[in-house]
TrEMBL record:
The keyword Protease applies. Gene3D superfamilies: 3.30.1380.10, 3.30.200.180. Residues 47-171 form the D-alanyl-D-alanine carboxypeptidase-like core domain. Keywords: Carboxypeptidase, Hydrolase, Protease. GO terms for molecular function: carboxypeptidase activity. This is D-alanyl-D-alanine carboxypeptidase family protein.
Amino acid sequence: MKVLTCSELETSRRDLMLVNRSHPLPDSTVPELAAPDPAYPEILMERRASLLLSACIRAAGGEGQIIPVSGWRSHAEQQAIWDDTMKKEGPSFTRSYVAYPGCSEHETGLAIDLALAAPEIDFIRPNFPYDGVCGSFRRLAPRYGFVERYRADKQAVTGIAAEPWHFRYVGVPHALLMEHYGVCLEEYLDLLCRQELTCTLENGRKVYVSRTDDHTAGQNTSDGCVRQAFCDNAGGFILTRWEGIV
């Protein structure tokens, strides 16, 4: 039995880390980064998320039509965007569409703002419609571990206005479960506090997901299953167990 402490998990993968005004980033660790689109080498994401975003865009037939607008941001860059938007647009607009520095998913490397290709693109509110190739991307996104993070009907929960362009990598099966239950990340963590969730993947493998508030999480492969644990940055761990992996 290998026991992982929260501090150990915080320095590993952060797929399910909750980041918002109530749950700021615990540190300024910079993930391993890569560009999802070689045409925009300056726009980066966490490497695994970057590879899967590229694969999803290809599967949707969106190469050259779906373009990245903003990915990983340093704390200084997020602060500059906050200050500039506050100066130009005022407090109400800024608080609705720009996360407070230190509380932005962009600082994790797991978030990406996307746009439908156009001669001019609004950096803060890029156009990413629900039809056409963008609609195809949305339908495929959960299969690649992505969710539309800030939906209009979840504003009271997330504290952020609808952002149809902002996608967050949470991984599979979590994106599939969030889509199935119609929940945002905050609600997903709450749901896992109440019950274990089960998901059957396309290959037939079953996955079990639960949450615990224990200070340690076990990772035991003696039963032939594979377990994975992430700190959720909300005082708990998300435990995922896959069956049928050889």
